[in-house]
Amino acid sequence: MNATGKFAGFTLGLVAVFGIALGVGALIGPEPAEPAAHDEHEAAAPATELPGGLMATDQGYTLALDQPNTEAAAQVSTSFRILDRTGAPVTQYVNSHDKDLHLIVVRRDMAAFQHVHPVLDEAGTWTVPLNLSRAGDYRVYADFTPAGGSNLTLGADLRVAGDYDVQALPAPAPTAKVDGYTVTLDGTVTPGTASQVSLSVSRDGKPVTDLQPYLGAYGHLVALRAADLAYLHVHPEGSPGDGVTAPGPGIDFVVNAPSAGDYRLFLDFQHEGVVRTAEFTLRVAQPDATGVTGPAPTNAPDDHGTPGHGH
């Protein structure tokens, strides 16, 4: 058969096939129509509040570091501004926990931590010396309440040049030691709920019962999620002088952890005129279907990269 004959036969075959298909379609009927799509607003899951510190800009305010790159040194003068939605520096703040602004600086592997209080000039620039003797990538958090606004925690990256001696996250442990003091962590944190924890301070095996107020409380707690350095909501229970809250040995906090995984806790407490910081790794477990707390995911991210307000 020549090429023309082959083509004609092929065409007739196609006609036959399509005819059979049409007949079968008529017997079976049209394909069921796909369910009508719901309005995208109806289908969307309810919005949840992001933890703090994940964004440099939120609610029209921006954390702007003057020098986001610097060299390693023990005393590095660091300046920044909080800009409003017009780009103008904010100069008026609401005092919160004895300060207009709290600055938290942590290396991304959690091996270096500082909680400091910068000085504000009339032009709206904050300045503070930082100990950046250990090179690496840092996350800088500004925790503040602008006049007429709500509390915010903004975060920005600070890069410190030099050899980066990256450290593994310490294993979870119920106690931490600092300068002869032992701090014990007690309580279970459940993701997605307000959980109460207590940190008790002792020295030489004896409870410390004369802690001194620091930032309006007997302790200040910062909690960071290891996977992305999200800055969590942490609130102290009670306050000095309220007639109820004892000056130690226990300091109670309410912690809101948005997910299971590893967290790093930094407790600042003051005794005999000196502020010290106790550090913990806390593993938050995921409850099972019955609500019983199970182990935290073993494959949780550990890249210490980039939900937030802690006191």
Structure commentary:
This protein has 311 residues and is mainly β. Among the domains are: 57-161, Macroglobulin (MG2) domain (Immunoglobulin-like); 175-284, Sandwich (Immunoglobulin-like), CATH 2.60.40.10. Helices cover 10% and strands 39% of the residues. It has 2 helices and 19 strands. The strands form 4 sheets. Strands 11, 12, 13, 14, 16 and 17 form a 6-stranded antiparallel β-sheet that branches. Strands 1-2-4-8-7 form a 5-stranded antiparallel β-sheet, with no helix packed on it. It has a 5-stranded mixed β-sheet with strand order 3-10-9-5-6, with no helix packed on it. It is globular and about 50 Å long. Residues 1-47 and 294-309 have low confidence and may be disordered.
| Mean pLDDT over all positions | 84
Q: Tell how many strands the DSSP assignment holds.
A: 19
Here the CATH topology of one domain equals Immunoglobulin-like
User: Total helix count?
Assistant: 2
Strand content is 35-45%
Helix content: under 10%
Any low-confidence stretches, pLDDT <50, length ≥5?
1-47, 294-309
Gap between N and C termini, in Å?
Answer: 90 Å
Global structural class? mainly beta
Task: Furnish the topology, listing elements before pairings.
Elements: H1 3-28, H2 40-43, E1 57-58, E2 61-65, E3 69-71, E4 73-83, E5 101-107, E6 113-116, E7 119-120, E8 125-132, E9 136-144, E10 152-161, E11 175-178, E12 181-186, E13 194-203, E14 206-207, E15 220-225, E16 233-236, E17 250-256, E18 261-271, E19 274-284
Parallel strand pairs: 3-10
Antiparallel strand pairs: 1-2, 2-4, 4-8, 5-6, 5-9, 7-8, 9-10, 11-12, 12-13, 13-14, 13-17, 15-18, 16-17, 18-19
